[in-house]
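Long-time lurker, first post. I've been practising inverse folding by hand and with some scripts of my own, and I keep getting stuck on stretches where the structure tokens seem ambiguous. Below is the full token string for one chain I'm working on. Before anyone asks, I'm not after the true native sequence, just a reasonable design that respects the backbone. If someone could post their per-position residues I'd love to compare against what I wrote down in my notebook.
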């Protein structure tokens, strides 16, 4: 555990973590409620997260809330749903200036923690339901976000491919749920979802910044101690199993550019080796996919890969002309075979490690990024700092990367295109 990171349990499955960083003049309080990702509750939780961050009994309108936040040196209060593998998190955060930099040395820690706890523990509610008008507005906002995904063909293709690649797993679900379920949300049902969140969700709180957060800790311990909590939801993520047969799906739509996604699964336990393998294969502008499939062979407009270390899955996304779908698909598989044979250089490894170092350093750039990093590490039960991850990466050898590549198996092929002329074949 890094020296600037502290974590303790302050209640039944309620954890408070503190990240000290004197470089900043601001602070962040992030409160996250973990629940299994489910089609039945995903949309409802999304609506609740938006609603709770926009009003409270003390500030019952958006205007009053915004005026108060503006008076607090443009403090930002937000609510959203996040995804950690098969888990959904209702996440609430408040970013605010540290008191020592306020004009009159106001106690900004106290003001900030009171603002966010007012929203979470004294919401705008009456007779067992939330405000009808505001819930209707937030519900429509979630519906609009879901429906807008089809207008972004890359986003739509990614969602459809995930449904196929992770069929039967929570990870196949959209983090916002479905339009059908969102339309079913009511002022009464959303309030019940809120009570469920308080009673049954594991809570992870992260305080990050220059403050010592002593006043914040006192307030949070006092507030959370009043909750009745039981039957805490188990939140875990299972590695996605490899399909026995390659799943191949073509979908037609009025698109100019086809979108192809090739999914792979791995049982490799060395995440650093898999991450570096992905960087060399398709994760950087100097990768094998970019250099060969896109640049040398001109088979596509874009081609890159990403590795989901929680699910043990690697995906290649490709923007391609419809007549080049099959050759691009075959060349992607060919480049993977070359990786498995070790046909990459020490320079490729050095470039991948450099790219990875630069990426990890970005988590030190702002408080929200640092909090997001540690939230993911807490969820995976591996409290390594970005610096510690860099050290792990440096120990990875070419043999480690080859072994990681050899563990990668073809699982899913999905293409969104304008016609049905090209049909990819399974590689030998």
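-- Answer (accepted) --
I ran through it position by position. Result:
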């Amino acid at each position: 555990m890094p020296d600037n990171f502290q974590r303790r349990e302050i209640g039944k499955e309620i954890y408070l973590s503190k990240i000290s960083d004197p470089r900043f003049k601001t602070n962040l309080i992030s409160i996250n409620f973990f629940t299994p990702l489910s089609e039945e509750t995903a949309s409802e939780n999304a609506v609740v997260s938006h609603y709770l961050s926009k009003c409270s009994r003390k500030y019952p309108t958006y205007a009053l809330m915004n005026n108060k936040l503006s008076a607090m040196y443009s403090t930002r209060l937000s609510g959203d749903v996040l995804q950690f593998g098969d888990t959904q998190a209702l996440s609430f955060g408040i970013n605010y200036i540290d008191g020592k930099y306020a004009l009159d040395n106001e106690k900004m820690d106290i003001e900030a923690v009171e603002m966010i706890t007012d929203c979470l523990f004294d919401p705008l509610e009456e007779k067992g339901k939330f405000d009808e008008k505001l819930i209707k507005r937030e519900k429509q906002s979630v519906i609009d976000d879901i429906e807008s995904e089809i207008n972004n063909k890359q986003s739509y293709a990614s969602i459809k491919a995930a449904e196929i690649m992770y069929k039967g797993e929570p990870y196949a679900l959209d983090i916002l749920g479905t339009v059908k379920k969102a339309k079913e949300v009511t002022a009464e049902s959303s309030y019940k979802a809120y009570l469920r969140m308080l009673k049954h969700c594991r809570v992870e709180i992260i305080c990050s910044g220059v403050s010592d957060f002593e006043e914040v800790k006192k307030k949070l311990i006092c507030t959370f101690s009043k909750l009745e909590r039981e039957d805490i939801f188990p939140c875990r993520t299972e590695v996605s199993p490899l399909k026995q047969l390659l799943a191949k799906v073509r979908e037609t739509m009025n698109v100019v550019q086809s979108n192809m996604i090739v999914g792979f699964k791995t049982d490799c336990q060395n995440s650093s080796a898999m991450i570096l393998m992905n960087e060399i294969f398709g994760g950087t502008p100097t990768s094998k996919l970019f250099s060969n499939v896109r640049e040398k062979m001109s088979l596509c407009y874009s081609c890159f890969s990403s590795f989901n270390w929680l699910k043990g899955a690697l995906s290649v996304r490709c923007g391609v002309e419809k007549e080049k779908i099959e050759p691009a698909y075959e060349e992607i598989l060919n480049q993977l075979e070359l990786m498995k044979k070790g046909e990459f250089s020490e320079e490729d490894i050095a470039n991948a490690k450099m790219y990875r170092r630069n990426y990890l350093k970005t988590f030190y750039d702002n408080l929200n990024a640092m909090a997001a990093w540690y939230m993911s590490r807490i969820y995976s039960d591996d409290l390594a700092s970005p610096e510690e991850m860099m050290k792990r990466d440096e120990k990875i050898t070419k043999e480690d990367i080859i072994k990681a590549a050899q563990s990668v198996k073809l699982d899913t092929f999905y293409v969104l295109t304008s016609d049905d002329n090209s049909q990819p074949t399974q590689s030998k």
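A couple of notes from the structure itself: Confidence is low (pLDDT under 50) at residues 424-428. The longest helix spans residues 132-148. Happy to go over any region you disagree with.
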